[in-house]
Amino acid sequence: MRTTGCPEEKILSFLSSQKAKDRCYHKVLSSMCTLPHPLAVQVQEMFIESNLGDPGLFEGTAEIESLLIEELGSLLHLTGACGYATSGGTESNIQALRIARKEKPVESPNVVVPESAHFSFEKACDLLGLEMRTVPSDGTYRMDAEMAAGMIDDHTIALVGIAGTTEYGVVDPIERLAELATEGDVHLHVDAAFGGLVLPFLESPPAFDFQLDGVASISVDPHKMGMSTIPVGCLLTRKESMLCALNVDTPYLTVKKEFTLAGTRPGGAVVGAWAVLEHLGRDGFTRIVQECMGRTRRLIEGMEGHGYSVVVEPEVNVAAFECPKIPPGWQVSRTRDGHMRIVCMPHVSTQAIENFLRDIGEMDV
Ligand code: 0PR
Asked: Model-level pTM greater than 0.85?
């Protein structure tokens, strides 16, 4: 550390030059995060000092966290859902598996997850000492539910389904997984970190949420399609007892028990997430999601026009293509199978899609 402090202007000037090295979002087609809604930014500033890790000090903020959970719960068909705001899908997935392990304290526990699962499950299994059984996909990049059935045994504590996969934007057969979970008495966790704020706004979405009795918990991230500031994920559970299973004593805090993983938690981002849901409402989200889906369809049509077929018809705004090229200046990503992957987030405008298609077309000639 320096002995004497540095003037603010000097620091700010250094930081501006650093920020200039960051990508600005308009040519980023690989991200599941997006530019936050201006209201989320304003609200974050308003609640900047608020720490949900000690909710008794910030009662107003804590009440908004409850409203956020209630609102997401009702969107996902469960009045009175329980849950809390996490740092994102990774923490929610870890916590869901912790709950499952507490619910079924067997020896040599395993979890059955689709091949397409986000790598956070690998982290969770490593942390929690769980065997991760990976179920192959059915040829459409969705989990093969019958193969999953064959992998569940008495040591299986959880089954995981993905609603809106990270790489191909498809939804696992959650309805069938819910039946398997009920039959086998295992915790079904649905990772809807991405799809949870897309699928409810589609015309006829597949069933993936608490309307299916077998679904025990869901991850849904406002900092992806909810346009909040980072970090805000949410873990929702069907029953309060699931969360309470994680309680530890916190004697010197304003609350005497805590089930969260993080201690100190950012109130400002959480309140911002709620404000955006409230401000846009179902109509606003439907409009934004429909726009993103429209652009995804236009992208697929344009790419196919250039001879690059879509790998699988996506159910959310993520599309992967058989395309080895990347036009200069654009940020796309590659799936594990080497496919070009594009996420049509709200910052990816119609013009950006047209420009990208033009640029990729120019590479053909
Ligand atoms: N579950 C699913 C289905 C996800 O897609 C992701 C993240 C997670 C869980 C984990 O969420 P957190 O990253 O919030 O813990 N999906 C993106 C990915 O890994 C996250 C991302 C976002 C990556 C922006 C890059 C980026 O620029 O691909």
From this structure: yes
